User: Fold this.
Amino acid sequence: MCQQQIPSVLYNPGVDADFFVFFLTRKENSYNIALSQYCFQASGSKRPIVAYTNINMNMLPEAKGDALLHEKNIYLMLHETLHNLGFTSYAYPYFIDQNGLALKGHVKSVKFGGQTRTVLDVAPLTSKLRKFFGCSSIPGALLENNGGSATASSHFERRFFLYDLMTSGLIDGHRISEFSLALLEGSGWYQPDYSYAEPYWFGQGQGCEFLTGNCASSTFQFEEFCKGSERGCGAFGRAGGKCQSDSLSDGCRFYYPFEENDCDNPDGYDNARLPDLQVFGRGAGSKCFSGTLNSRQSNSGRTTFCFKYTCINNGEKVQVQVGENKIVCDKEGQQTIDGFYGSIDCPDPTTFCSTVAKQYCPRGCMGRGTCENNKCVCNKGFTGIDCGLRI
Assistant:
């Protein structure tokens, strides 16, 4: 069982469970964080019922109370769990319809956006994607086309689903989107509770060109992507970063959020241009704003800041707290501040307040609390914005 990966001492026959996972650990000098694979299926439905996850402990340090590292570790384990449940190219051929019969023709190789891509076309995933992007011609979920056999086709394409839990690679600000849950429903094995899907908007409403266009072209203009190497805020507003691409983004450049510039990082002051004006720390209520604000006459170039904010007038305006100053953004554009050189970039208030500023209970409060008014009220013995840490 499990390709003889499991030591016999771990076998525990007769467990009363619907699904069983062996967790193994190793230490190796590689960038491989974890490997997950199901290894036993139900005889009728072919649903995975036994799986294993092998973790490289050199790449997964213990959080020891570090909320940001704890979050990364939790998202990694959720990611691996979804692989075990069936989000993998090895499981797609066994997906079933509502009558329990094997699906056919749902894994396709199609020409889309000038490239031949592997797509997964299952209900309700495809219809959700068409509605989300505003593109009726999407043939299904576009799967990763790079990264080798362990990555390609077993993840969503990173270029289009950058912050989704089921893209390959870690990034600050991952979200459990409705799409990952919809793929599980499309397997025919599960009925997800979509109330646990987290707010997600990367590419929302951008139309077919967002998916088919050449991001290296001068005519390709979408706020999710950037050009050059300037600094800006990540699409989910939590951290600043540099405009860059990576090995899985098909050459598309985006503001890759850095932990040292994460507004949830209490040590963010160490890397801030104007630290006395900024607010850092989980639950402190700040978000990322870009700009050229500086205390010298010379232009210090564009960077990012973590400022507290309030959406006012039903989200028609954003009030930004810059040290002792309060500025009001009523439209997208640059705002100057008395006593400082440069400016900060005001976001579009309506968009900002409905996306970046939207409150929600992360990860359903981890089963360790209840969600009240979009905030987690933790059970006794737990704390944190997601109740993820023990007191």
The chain has a mean pLDDT of 92.
